[in-house]
Amino acid sequence: MKINVAKSAGFCFGVKRALNIALHTVEHKKNVCMLGDIVHNEDVVRTISEAGIKKIGRLSSGEGKTLLIRAHGASKETFIKAKKAGYTLVDATCLMVKEIHKIAIKKEQQGCKIIVIGDKKHDEVKGITGQLKKQALVIDSLKSIPCIASLKKYKKAVVVVQSTQNIEKVEKVIKKLEKHIPHLEFYNTICQPTTSKQQEARSLPLKNEVMIVIGSKTSANTKRLYEISKSLNKKTHWIQSQKDLRKIWFLNVKSVGITAGASTPDKTTKEVVKRIKDFAI
Asked: How many whole angstroms separate alpha carbon 116 and alpha carbon 139?
């Protein structure tokens, strides 16, 4: 059995950077905490917890505490509240996500209505919209595009995109918006690691009998890799770790393609590869 692992599988630059910042911070500071999870991966979250970083649900008194801002970013309000509460802030927001923030802020200041294509409940999207003075329009699918009458009120609009979105779906939304908004400016803010992963997720399923996508069920970018792969190869399986593998998937199979989400550790991918090889013995 031949096993083909995507070159882009696993940690992206933003996740590596956030994890390094987190571990460096907890080495040098006491009482380090974080609002939610640093990234959407259970193994990484466990590593962070074992290192001594506490996950909190809300801000309280921050005297003597350090608040780590996660890779997905946070709203301006969160930064302001944390500083007022006395927290020392360490910002691990992905640099590519920060670029989206800059674009959105600048274009709003120029009088543009901001439209975000992304998952409405995702932390990154909340962080983007949370940079703005006025409410942004968030579109997560063709079905969620407002009625034509509502769109015609947008004389001048700018579109930014959640960094892990599927470009094919984004382009469909843009085409519909362009029909009804006279001045629409589009910034493709899907990050390069996501683009590379999705390109391989479109080629590997066609070259292999079975596809394995590794990543948390809470990971937006992993979900999209799975959706792309599944649309091209019905024998695509989404797993979190080697424990989810089933021997029957690989019976009489000569080639297996593997990819992994941006927050999936290399260790997890290597364990999956080893387990599949064990099945072949």
From this structure: 6
Task: Tell me the CATH number at 68.
Answer: 3.40.50.11270
Residues annotated catalytic, as ranges: 124
Which among 142, 200, 132, 196 is positioned nearest to 164, based on CA atoms? 196
Q: Which structural domain range is residue 45 located in? A: 13-94
**Per-residue pLDDT reduced to its tens digit, 155-179:** 899 999 999 999 999 999 999 999 9
The token pair that represents 203 in the structure block: 């080629």
Question: Per mean pLDDT, which range of 85-99, 147-161, 188-202 is the poorest?
Answer: 147-161
Through-space distance between the first and last CA atoms of the chain, rounded to whole angstroms: 10
User: Using one digit for the tens of pLDDT, what is the confidence trace for 179-209?
Assistant: 999 899 999 999 999 999 999 999 999 999 9
> For residue 101, what are its two tokens?
């923030």
Q: Which residue's structure tokens are 């034509």?
A: 148
Separation between Cα atoms, residue 113 and residue 134, nearest integer Å: 8
> Strand pairing partners for 89?
67
Q: Do 228 and 200 lie in a common domain?
A: yes
Alpha helices by DSSP H, 92-161: 95-109, 123-129, 148-151
Helix, strand, or coil here: 186? strand
Percent helix, strand and coil across the chain, each to the nearest 5: 45, 20, 35
Query: Which amino acid does the sequence have at 201?
Result: A
The DSSP output letter for 36 is S
